[in-house]
Automatic annotation (TrEMBL):
Family label: Belongs to the GART family.
SUPFAM superfamilies cross-referenced by the UniProt entry: Formyltransferase (SSF53328)
A single GO cellular-component term on record: cytosol
Entry annotated with the keyword Magnesium: no
Catalytic reaction(s) noted: N(1)-(5-phospho-beta-D-ribosyl)glycinamide + (6R)-10-formyltetrahydrofolate = N(2)-formyl-N(1)-(5-phospho-beta-D-ribosyl)glycinamide + (6S)-5,6,7,8-tetrahydrofolate + H(+)
The species this protein was found in: Mesobacillus boroniphilus JCM 21738
Protein name: Phosphoribosylglycinamide formyltransferase
Amino acid sequence: KKIAVFASGSGSNFQAIAVAAQSGILNAEISLLVCDKPGAFAIDRAEMLGIPALVISPKSYPSKAAYEAEILQKLTSLDVEMIVLAGYMRLIGPILLEAYEGKIVNIHPSLLPAFPGKDAIGRALAAGVETTGVTIHYVDEGMDTGPIIASASVKVEAGETRETLQKKIQRIEHSLYPEILEELLNGEEEAVQWEKSVH
Ligand code: GRF
């Protein structure tokens, strides 16, 4: 099965997914990286991994629909079946949502529905929660609002900083995302119902 990963930044989740696919843990082909930020480190990672990248700036298009239509054309030409968002800092619009209905997933660094949107880790820390985590969910037109597929919780320890918490969360993301993608693509749909706990 062919996947496109969308990323705007560092791309560490993109890399984790690509490595899982290349090593056979994830039975899928990462056909394309779509990156909306020229210069993002995710693009360098794609090059190192030998994965083609579509670097595409929304500013170069008259509308979001035109921007997404260009992406869609590329996805269609590659027979991409699923879109995996990994730090893609943009809402998905109707063009892609309709073409890939039920086939777009996202990972978010909180236990949704708590702390949707930007800086979820910093806001969870500032709110003083004892537990936060990671959520993988289907994507709809909202901001981190689609149906939840899986989550993993992370304890916030005394003296935790944004950096230490982010490190813990990312470590979990890098194993959880490939694992859940494998289930979604190749497992029994019913089997995808679990909760993990990491301390
Ligand atoms: C991840 O923490 C993910 O949960 C959030 O954005 C971050 C992306 O990190 N949506 P990276 O670009 O994969 O390193």
